[in-house]
């Protein structure tokens, strides 16, 4: 017999009605792992109604909650054990076949059930009406009051308890029902009425504190919690509420002290471990926070909040894979909790798993389709994936739900700009600015799109608005300088680049573009200094090497220019501009064959490079290859009909080239001469 067959035989025996008492003890004594049936021998014995009561008593102490759950549902379990386990598994107690029979035997049995178990039973929506009737007839006042005060008590049960003969029970029911229905102002009034009748009612002080907390009045809520604790010092729920309020006030250390007080009273209070973990996380004590969440989960493994917050802490700790595992546990427990899907997104993005992040957004939006921030964030993530059309759809969704969502208008503008729809992008930025005119990024983005539309003066105005809000933003000063360059306002451009460099001295692009503006002003020595600074910061900045070469060329230092062009090409060998400029320097040095080779390299990379075709023509002229030179000028003009230099060079070449007369012209010439001679 195989191991699996043996296990299956033992399970059949454990489940059988024919199995006798002693054999059950033997089966329990067999230490076997869980089988492919996803159950165990202990579970099978625990649910068998023929198992001996003494054995069921022993199994009630099992560390396995599945075993204890089955013992609670077993009609052969001793009554005292049922009452004890009922606090943990109220539904199984209610479903136990022996439960209603016990009430038939003992009408006032409700007085003998521990309060902790009764509280859990009366939380069940499925609780039969006869139990509520028993409570009203036989229940002790303290028991009825405890059930009325329990926020988890079924609303149906509370409505029946409202008929109680004792006014204090009715008052508690009123408070609890209002709180359950989310009517916090009315509930606060009800708690105040209860306190007017009974000023030392600690439960009402705590309830008052909870309602004040729900209404955002945290200082007043703290006073109420302290009042409750002055009356009942070891009031676990009041210490718990006090910890929550202190957390809301940002007093994390004080909150931890309160949660520790709870744990002194009830070491297995998972809520206190959870709250303590939250406070430790806020204090940046991530390892201690995780330890607290682990304690909470040891007590209550299905608390999705603890799994979720544990994930957040691990994320802050940069343990992204572990964080993801915690988030996944939270989702397994509460798959319809849309915020759990959203926090999962953050760690997926940090892991670079953007496609998975989109899938999480989709899950969250299936649950709550009108979550405009989720649609917005989905758009941002799609933008990262360069799925611009899909991102635009997400931004539009966000705006359909929340038309005054500033960030979504800004994000929409960014996408439209990337799609080349500049006028539409400008309209989106204007919409964002109508909503929030003091937002820096909207003015900055507006300036960028106006630049692309060639509306340079308007772009400058937008950048100036951005700088009014954030005067030390080097990026805006840099962009402003670039637009001034396009307006041929080179001094203004240099002033803007200088501002950018005062703020960010290591901006290689700003140094390079400053050099270009100086070059336009004919200040080539100063331009060299700027290009050198750019290269000093970024050694592989091939554009700056090329521009430095141009400055040397303008100063007539052609060998130095060549060195710079070589540097640029060593970094980026397909840089056609540097090959062309190298050709120019070689031309000036009289090295026409080498110059021609450089122009050819430029044209291999960019066959439509009109300027290189023209320069190639120059070199060919120097090499007396006039026909090839003419062809090069023709190519230059073909690719750029407005290349006036090439047009002039072609014209001059044609004028300087001697023409050989045709045979017809020679015959005509001599015929004319002879006719004149003999006339």
Describe the protein in words:
The protein is an all-alpha fold. 74% of the residues lie in helices and 0% in strands. The chain contains 42 helices and no strands. The protein starts with a helix and ends with a helix. The model is unreliable at 34-38 (pLDDT under 50).
In terms of per-residue confidence, which ranges show pLDDT below 50 for 5 or more consecutive residues? 34-38
Instruction: Tell me what portion of residues adopts beta-strand conformation.
Output: under 5%
C-alpha end-to-end distance: 138 Å
Q: Based on CA inertia axes, which overall geometry fits?
A: elongated
Count the E strands. Answer: 0
**How is the quaternary structure best described?**
single chain
Number of helices: 42
Instruction: Describe the largest sheet.
Output: none
Computed structural class = mainly alpha
Question: What is the mean pLDDT?
Answer: 92
The gyration radius over C-alpha positions equals: 42 Å
Helix content class: over 70%
What tags apply to this protein structure?
679 residues, 74% helix, 0% strand
Write the layout of secondary structure elements.
Blueprint: H1 3-15, H2 21-29, H3 41-46, H4 53-59, H5 65-73, H6 79-86, H7 90-95, H8 99-105, H9 115-121, H10 129-138, H11 141-149, H12 155-161, H13 167-180, H14 184-197, H15 202-214, H16 218-231, H17 236-248, H18 252-265, H19 270-282, H20 286-299, H21 304-316, H22 320-333, H23 338-350, H24 354-367, H25 372-384, H26 388-401, H27 406-418, H28 422-435, H29 440-452, H30 456-469, H31 474-486, H32 490-503, H33 508-520, H34 524-537, H35 542-554, H36 558-571, H37 576-588, H38 592-605, H39 610-622, H40 626-639, H41 644-656, H42 663-677
Helix pairs in contact: 5-6, 6-9, 11-13, 12-13, 13-14, 14-15, 15-16, 15-17, 16-17, 17-18, 17-19, 18-19, 19-20, 19-21, 20-21, 21-22, 21-23, 22-23, 23-24, 24-25, 25-26, 25-27, 26-27, 27-28, 27-29, 28-29, 29-30, 30-31, 31-32, 31-33, 32-33, 33-34, 33-35, 34-35, 35-36, 35-37, 36-37, 37-38, 37-39, 38-39, ...
